[in-house]
Amino acid sequence: MSVSASLPRREGAVVLGAAVRTLGAFPSGWRVEGAHRDPAGDPQALKRLAKEAERAHLDYLFFGDWLSGNLELEFTDPYLLARIDPLSAVGFLASSTSRIGLIATVNTSYSDPFAVARTAASLDHLSGGRFGLNLAVGAEPRADANHAPTSPGANRHEVAAEYLAVLTGLWDSWADDAVVADAERGALIDRSKISPIDHDGRHFRVAGPALGLRPVQGHVPIVHADVSPRAREFAAEYAELHIVSPAGLREGVQLVRDIHAAVAAHGREADSVTVVVPLLPVVAETREAAWRLYDRLVELVPVDEGVGRGGGDALPGLPPHRTAAAIRRFVGVPLLDRELDDPVSLSDAERFNAAGQRLIETVRRRSGRVPGGPRATDYRHLLVAHLFPAPLVVGSATDVADHIETWFRAGAADGFTVQSAYLHEQFEAFTRQVVPVLVERGLFRADYGSKTLRGHLGSARPEWTPRPARPREADRRVAASASAFDGVVGLRAL
């Protein structure tokens, strides 16, 4: 069965989004010939990527974030070393796109819900209802050093839940029809349709109302990542899109079942949360060509080329344990004379511990290399597989489409957030080679069937409901604040 141009997502189509990493999702990707590698050129790279993603009818672009500086990112995740702020990136792309969803990350531990509610509603209007908000809740010492102190870790999801209550309260503080624009009577608004929220909680105190219209989508769709028990419960109660990272197909099937059960336990339709997993495809015309490309990516990963004694030409700041000695210790075999480019013999492989056996299988899936084979596994490939346990699928367009179909039909994922090893060749290999195969198989729609991110996800728009009357104490608090502000009325327009 083919997918019609207007097929709703819930009628059998895979959700496909792209995680934006302009310097690539594989740490050595930016070093490949022709790859985008200068962050100063990110504006042009973002426009090209967004245009290509929309041409392929992808559901969304996802902008993650990291709120601390760490020079080691040069070797582990170069994009995070120097990247454009996610909210700024979404605002930049809103006017140059028309259908694709645009998701930005905000951390509830380091941001103000009143300001974020306003920005999110504004971006939803500027994009015509295509904005999504990924609420991150994590905190870590290096980020703490750049921001005000955060709540203890045990309270972060509690803080996030209250943060979200403030967001939705502010978005609902204006009714959809609050603006009447009656020029004849001189009435711009219907005052009965705008109300403060008077939130006075454990972590936030916000009077409201919002400083603008209700979002086009009613509430901006909420995205949440991570699979910890608390994260799963948070997503089950509040999110429209949940990003998880199962270790394999079987774990993915069980995880999706558990998430849907948790969603139902919160009184929602079990499938009202779209569960997506990350995917990093390395695509070429043939499987063998993709293997060669992956070999090149492995070759370009900076490592200490010495024989495990720091004697190589290691780059300044290179993380430790990027040596032949490190991988030998990890697989449990003290083969002191083995170097990174030495092949793994069958006799060596038989002595590997369980972790080493898993690495051998990972290398086989990624590169077709096996111990003692014509394409022999070497210690460099083992080291890179250990350093970067990303969800890679290396092969032809058919190979990648097969993987997507297998996971989707097994119920291990509703969709995928695709990462690219580097821009732009690898992203365009996915959109121009893999996506058409999925469309041909009836797994992905041939055109956009909706205009909003909620529509792409098959998520209903929340109806507006009037808020209860304010308590008198809240009236006095708001009046006092207004009186104090009257003295600077001349500054309001600045």
From TrEMBL:
Sequence positions that bind FMN: 65, 105, 228
Pfam families given in the database record: Bac_luciferase
Matches recorded under Gene3D superfamilies: Luciferase-like domain
The UniProt record lists the keyword Oxidoreductase: yes
Domain Luciferase-like: 35-412
UniProt keyword terms in alphabetical order: Flavoprotein, FMN, Monooxygenase, Oxidoreductase
Nucleotide-binding in keyword set: no
SUPFAM superfamilies: Bacterial luciferase-like (SSF51679)
GO molecular function per UniProt: monooxygenase activity; oxidoreductase activity, acting on paired donors, with incorporation or reduction of molecular oxygen
PANTHER family xref list: ALKANESULFONATE MONOOXYGENASE-RELATED, C2H2 FINGER DOMAIN TRANSCRIPTION FACTOR (EUROFUNG)-RELATED
Family stated for the protein in its record: Belongs to the NtaA/SnaA/DszA monooxygenase family.
Protein name: FMN-dependent oxidoreductase, nitrilotriacetate monooxygenase family
Species in which this protein is naturally found: Herbiconiux ginsengi
